[in-house]
Amino acid sequence: MRLLSLRQFLLALPVSLLLLGSGPPAHAGYNEGLAAYKKGEMALALKEFLPLAQAGNAQSQIMVAQILMNGGKGVAKDTKTGMQWVRRAAEANNVDAQVFLAQALLQGEHGEPKDMTGAAKWYERAAQAGDKRAVLPLAQMKMQGLGMPADPEGAVPWLEKLVADNNVVAHELLGTMAVQGKGMAQDYARGAGHLEIAARQGSMSAAFVLGQLYIKGLGMAKDSDVGLRLISQSANAGNYQAMTTLASLLANGQEVPQDSQQAYKWITIVLNRAPQGDLFYSASGIETQIRPRLSNRQIEAAQAEASRFVATPMKAAGK
Questions:
Q1: Are 61 and 87 in contact (CB under 8 A)?
Q2: Which burial class, exposed, middle or buried, applies to 38 when counting CB atoms under 10 A from its CB (0-12, 13-18, 19+)?
Q3: Residue 221 in domain
């Protein structure tokens, strides 16, 4: 089982969202600057915000950064100087700036070179200040050792903060970690509990792992029918790992009725659409195992069905 990539869980924070994140400070000129900004009078807005920014007001620094990075009427676009103001606001403990700077460093965006250590630093500062946008990327970086020594155990308390808000990704990650014994003692029942919640909210990855637990009877009563249904849902949602596992189960008649033609359909989808890697080569081995069992007509039927396959996203329970 593989944890999802960090990029999948990044919360995009466009420059436009920096506008009102922390509320207007009580300084003369700020409201005038904001009024000019809303009218599109960027030169006038910059004139009002700049003295406040130079005096150290973090929200005004954010506004100066936004104006410069976007450009506009009377103001030339200047991303480099804009990012300098973002840094100043981040240093002044503005969490919007900290999250934005962390993402820019992580992605190598807005003229910033990729800097995992810097990204981890700013995500951690924002998370420590209570900003929930920073928590998931920070936990992922701790788990994967990006910009800091790998510390799966240290990621757990951060993920638990998100679980308190019923965050589906946090449930999925904690469930997978409990099943793997990564960052905590291996606990199938604990893992199954988190994965069940995530799967009910439409997580195809959680459904895939949970289905395997049901089939093997780990952390719960064994139920192959439920396990097969969950793995099938994940496969139908486009999860190539689930497709490969489902094909193996169907090909070998493991806990489910054998169906080599359906197994061949799923393997064909993986071989035709999944990126090459360990999963691709595993699927190739299953294809070699299944093919001799099928007639040319069965192979053609399975291939035709595979060509028509369109992934159907899982729906949250009750939707």
A1: no
A2: exposed
A3: no
